[in-house]
């Protein structure tokens, strides 16, 4: 496959990504336009809504302007002046990342992965900019600069994931044998000492596994919350009287917000929790909320102080401990291979203790950083007034997660030295 063909296929993949992303909300809205509104409303209204939703889901801020009379009837504090909405329904970003990973896997098998990636990212940025220009309206104005950058950045994350995944699973003789970037990357890696390279890889793996474990358990907890709060959710659906197609559109909107809710649940487990408006808090220490957006899924929110709320704080601690237990053999192999028997006992013990602490601290930094970035991405302004503060506080999520993961990983590695059988205590 030559370079022009690779670039053409990469650009075509970008077109498909935008078409699918915008089409997810546009198709049900078009059916709603044809059946419930009888084609009486300009279809461009639904196109603008779909384009705004896709851009918003990929991190683009949208400036809304509501008619003053409508704002008074809705009783929205602060809606009399233009306000910005920046909370991203991460379901759209997840679709972009997954499609990007698919493209990355395909590009990884070509001789020109960098060319394809650059063309794909630039094409998606240009297409997102065109979408932003086509949906501009006095009532809703997406940021053009962010439209050119943020969706392309999300797509680039997916490309990188797909490329990295393929490079680990496919033998080098089959994967990108003529790829210059792979040769340069391998040369730079080989210049680093094997022990140090192994320690860095171990730290990255520990932090990623710990963060994934917390988010995974949050997803399970979110599923249980939806099951046990099903009656409250159904009651809110009935009170909205949205009809069949309106209910489907509302459900799709909540599915787009489902990744946000999972990340908020993970922040609840970590400790800081999240806010649903200025002055509100949903955390293991208690729940204080006022008026919330009329989404049925919020009917499952806890009220007051949960009886076993503090038990949620055990989740990141247990995950960190188990992560250390899983990676303990790799850590011991790295330490023994890096230090060896040539040093004195005192110096060997000190070097091993230092690497143990570095592994725990590094894993805590990586895991806390991943959780904090997810928390930062999942929140933002959801409306005017008090709704300008929605989601977790990324800074506090980082602090709490760092302390919990570092301490639990350190305990896990130390416990391995004491329970690993005869002579195990001398290994650390």
TrEMBL record:
Keywords: Membrane, Transmembrane, Transmembrane helix. The chain crosses the membrane at residues 7-34, 81-100, 112-135, 147-165, 209-234, 240-258, 265-287, 307-332, 353-377, 397-417. InterPro entries: DUF6350. This is Uncharacterized protein. It comes from Herbiconiux ginsengi.
């Amino acid at each position: 496959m030559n370079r022009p063909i690779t670039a053409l296929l990469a650009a075509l993949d970008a077109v498909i990504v935008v078409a699918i992303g915008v089409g997810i909300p546009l198709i049900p809205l078009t059916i709603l336009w044809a059946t419930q509104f009888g084609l009486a409303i300009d279809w461009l209204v639904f196109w603008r809504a779909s384009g705004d939703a896709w851009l918003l889901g990929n991190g683009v801020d949208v400036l809304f302007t509501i008619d003053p009379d409508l704002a008074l009837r809705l009783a929205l504090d602060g809606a009399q002046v233009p306000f910005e909405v920046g909370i991203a329904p991460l379901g759209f970003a997840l679709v972009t990342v997954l499609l990007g990973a698919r493209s990355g896997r395909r590009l990884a098998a070509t001789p020109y992965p960098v060319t394809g990636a650059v063309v794909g990212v630039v094409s998606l940025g240009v297409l997102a900019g065109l979408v932003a220009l086509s949906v501009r309206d006095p009532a809703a104005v997406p940021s053009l600069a962010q439209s050119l950058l943020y969706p392309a950045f999300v797509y680039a994350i997916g490309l990188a994931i797909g490329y990295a995944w393929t490079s680990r699973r496919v033998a080098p003789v089959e994967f990108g044998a003529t790829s210059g970037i792979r040769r340069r990357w391998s040369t730079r890696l080989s210049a680093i000492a094997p022990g140090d390279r192994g320690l860095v890889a171990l730290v990255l793996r520990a932090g990623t596994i710990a963060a994934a474990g917390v988010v995974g358990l949050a997803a399970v907890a979110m599923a249980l919350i939806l099951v046990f709060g099903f009656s409250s959710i159904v009651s809110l659906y009935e009170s909205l009287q949205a009809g069949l197609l309106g209910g489907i559109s509302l459900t799709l909107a909540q599915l787009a917000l489902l990744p946000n809710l999972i990340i908020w649940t993970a922040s609840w487990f970590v400790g800081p929790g999240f806010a649903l408006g200025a002055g509100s808090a949903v955390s293991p220490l208690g729940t204080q909320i006022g008026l919330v957006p009329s989404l049925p899924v919020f009917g499952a929110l806890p009220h007051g102080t949960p009886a076993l709320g503090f038990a949620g704080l055990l989740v990141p601690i247990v995950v960190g401990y188990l992560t250390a237990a899983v990676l303990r053999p790799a850590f011991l192999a790295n330490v023994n291979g890096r230090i060896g028997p040539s040093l004195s006992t005192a110096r060997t013990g000190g070097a091993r203790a230092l690497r143990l602490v570095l592994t725990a601290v590094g894993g805590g930094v990586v895991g806390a950083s991943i959780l904090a970035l997810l928390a930062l991405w999942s929140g933002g302004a959801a409306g005017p007034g008090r709704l300008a503060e929605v989601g977790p506080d990324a800074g506090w999520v980082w602090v709490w997660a760092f302390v919990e993961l570092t301490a639990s990983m350190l305990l896990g590695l130390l416990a391995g030295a004491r329970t690993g059988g005869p002579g195990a205590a001398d290994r650390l």
